[in-house]
Amino acid sequence: MQVSDPSTLSSQERPYFSALWRGGRITTDGVENCQLGHRLDLGGRHGPDGIFVEWSWDGDALTVRNDRYGIYPLFYACHAGEIRISPSILHVLRGDFPKTLNVAALAVFLRLGFFLQEDTPFEHVHLLPPGSTLTWRQGKLTLRRGSMDVPVPETPVTSFDEAVEQYGQLFRQAISRRPPPASGFTLPISGGRDSRHILFELLEQGHKPDLTVTVQSRPPSSNEDLRIARILARELELVHEEIAMPRSYFQANLKDIEVTHFCGSGHTWLLPVAAYLKANGTKTVYDGLAGDVLSGGLQANENRLSLIKSGQTRNVAISLTQESGLTQFLQSSLKDTPRRILDETLAVERIDNELKTHLGAANPWMSFIFWNRTRRGIGLIPFSILSPVETVYCPYLDHELFDFFWNLDPTYSMGNALHDETIRRSYPQHAHLPFEDKHAPRATGAAESAFYRRGVAEFLAHYMSHPRRLRSRLVKSERIVAMLARDLMRMQCPSTWYLQPSLYLMELEEQLDRL
Q1: Three-class SS of residue 401?
Q2: Angle, alpha carbons 253-259-264 (nearest 5°)
């Protein structure tokens, strides 16, 4: 099993640009012309396909544009005649503007694990909205937002069988529009649907990956991804590399916070893959971003859909804030300084207002999840964590395929019914290959306990070697230390669920102190 070092990943390597208008003169710094991601000029109704952001400076004006979905992260701040832009929030934070926290945004993030719309942890730092054009000239910013409307098809899909047929055709077209280069490509594979669908269609079109990779899951896990990936690799005669999970759970959490720009959580599992691809100079990767949301009915259920369609968005917002189970921890572990972050009502109101903006969509729940969780949370995987890779294709976001998904009856997708049947009918020769078993027993015991005990010990040592953190203005350090000491002494050290939110807040505080 390949061992990779996530410490080689750094958000500081990302490009940036800044301009300052002062006293009738302009001073600039950074990369004046930049294109990131991949742009496909296919002549569709929505403009260029692909996932990208680009900016240009002509000596007088800065112009920034991005893709239809705004998934490639581009942070910006404009204050007192200065503009700073970068796919790394750390570069933007070097600007001369108030570094006040966005407490409403953080109240949501600490409960959901992702930010909404263009929110970031900082009031004066924003994310470029979907399909936008930003212009800055002589200290003044103009932002033209793109439309998020999806056209209704002239001939709507009226049956499940018709949906399966069109899905297969449109996905085939999406892959054909994104052929791999002659130099080859790498494909991460798992036990689920998204990567498998990509793999089967690439093979169908004569493109065999040079390499497939799968990462070991951290405990407690059944490691179904590895089991299924081994079956696929053996059956299809693929070169397959198994990547070991991060040895240090604590260090992986630290790195996750940095490379997701204080805007993501729970991506530690992918860091070794990103480090491996960087070390091997991988140029092209395919990613299944949004496949589970658009065709798998992710987190959808009849009760939730019914509540939203009847306008009971507040009830949905309340249930979302309570699912994480972090409210009690936040109330007991945060100091009075960021007290409003503890206010669950503040988070509920912010989520409720966002849910209301999606009520006009054909599938309001999918719309909310895609434009927020997918765009702001999961999208950080291919375009932040995997940023060392030059091109990351996301075929599920092909414009025509996306429009098709958007107008489907949401019941078709629930429980992966649509995706499973499309794969089965499109590739009958592979229909016997199993998917992951969601009920497979998880490995627990000594290995799990040792993994998390090591993380606890490292966190405790970090505290002791950084005395300033014992005087944190945000976190009740004495309580966190007590929890760490308790878990270190236990015979069975459980998953340290509190490590990520407390470490996140301390890193946020550390960043503020550096500015």
Answers
A1: helix
A2: 70
- Are 455 and 249 in contact by the 8 Å Cβ rule? The answer is yes
Can you tell me the distance from the alpha carbon of 397 to that of 211, in angstroms, rounded to the nearest whole number?
A: 23
Rounded to the nearest 5°, which phi and psi values hold at 80? 50, 45
Backbone dihedral angles phi then psi of residue 89, each to the nearest 5 degrees:
-65, -25
Indicate the burial class of 304 (C-beta count within 10 angstroms; 0-12, 13-18, 19 or more).
middle
pTM: 0.95
CA atoms of 64 and 145, how far apart (whole Å): 12
**Would you say 51 and 87 are in contact if contact means Cβ atoms under 8 Å apart?**
no
Q: What is the mean pLDDT of each run of 10 residues along the chain (515 residues)?
A: 84 96 96 97 92 98 97 97 97 95 93 96 97 97 93 90 98 98 96 97 98 89 92 98 90 94 92 96 97 85 84 94 81 76 88 96 92 97 97 98 94 91 98 91 72 88 85 88 87 74 91 85
Question: From CA 381, how far away is CA 375, in angstroms rounded?
Answer: 10
CA distance 389 to 278: 7
Sequence-distant (6+) residues with CB within 8 A of 401 are 167, 170, 171, 173, 174, 294, 395
Strands 211-215 and 240-243: parallel
